[in-house]
């Protein structure tokens, strides 16, 4: 069944759950984010740590979802394959944007900044906490490359699994680790009635965070 234009145009929702004011925003964007993140957890938002990661590929945008796994240098950390398309894009052009959507709370958070690899020690530490199957998956998958078949991947997985019997630690592959987005801009968006949403932006000026309201 095809979608009608009318059907799409009539998808309208009035946002009315909350409000956001300059005075009530925390002094730093990280603490504001932590506050909202706790509320997303409390509201049992599905996958609250999933965000859209936008990167630059030869001057053009490229975006996909990854998972927020903690903070370093006041910015969000995520883990990936360094040789993947996104890994290569971030190595060539180390700038990114992160977009979180917490729809049940009618909230969006945007973060922009420069990107760095986290230390190998921190990547090792996190890799060691991952379920064994995910560790083997990370080692087995040449993320982003064309594969001949599903069987090919499963064979590689079984091969690696066989190399490390249960109880033997699986080393972190060199091509897998964390990135941090060191932010210079954050924006907190709260949906409001009549599309007059609240948008509070934090930007760095002289080492201090400036809070400003943006038109919706
Ligand atoms: C909910 C969700 C969470 C994901 N988390 C990650 C992640 O943390 N790291 C990652 O590399 N890919 C993650 N992915 C897969 C990416 O969206 C993407 O398919 C993959 O990283 C390849 O991206 P690339 O080809 O642009 O490098 C996730 C996908 C979804 C839908």
Structural commentary:
With 216 residues, this protein is α+β, with helices and mostly antiparallel strands. It has a single domain (17-131, 174-213), classed as Electron Transport, Fmn-binding Protein, Chain A (Pnp Oxidase, Chain A), CATH 2.30.110. It contains 6 helices and 9 strands, in the order H-H-E-E-E-E-H-E-E-H-H-H-E-E-E. Strands 1, 2, 3, 4, 5, 6, 7, 8 and 9 form a 9-stranded antiparallel beta sheet that branches. Helix 5 crosses helix 6 (150-163). The longest helix has 14 residues, at 29-42. The protein binds flavin mononucleotide (FMN). Flavin mononucleotide binds at residues 47, 50, 64-67, 78-81, 84-86, 143-144.
List the helices and strands and how they pair.
Layout: H1 5-9, H2 29-42, E1 50-57, E2 60-67, E3 71-72, E4 75-81, H3 85-92, E5 95-102, E6 107-117, H4 120-129, H5 132-140, H6 150-163, E7 176-190, E8 198-205, E9 208-213
Antiparallel strand pairs: 1-2, 1-5, 3-4, 4-7, 5-6, 6-7, 7-8, 8-9
Bound molecules: flavin mononucleotide.
Q: What is the compact description of this entry?
A:
This protein has six helices and nine strands, in the order ααββββαββαααβββ.
Q: Which ions and ligands are bound to the chains?
A: flavin mononucleotide
How much of the residues is beta strand, in percent?
Answer: 25-35%
The amount of helix comes to 25-40%
In total, the number of strands is 9
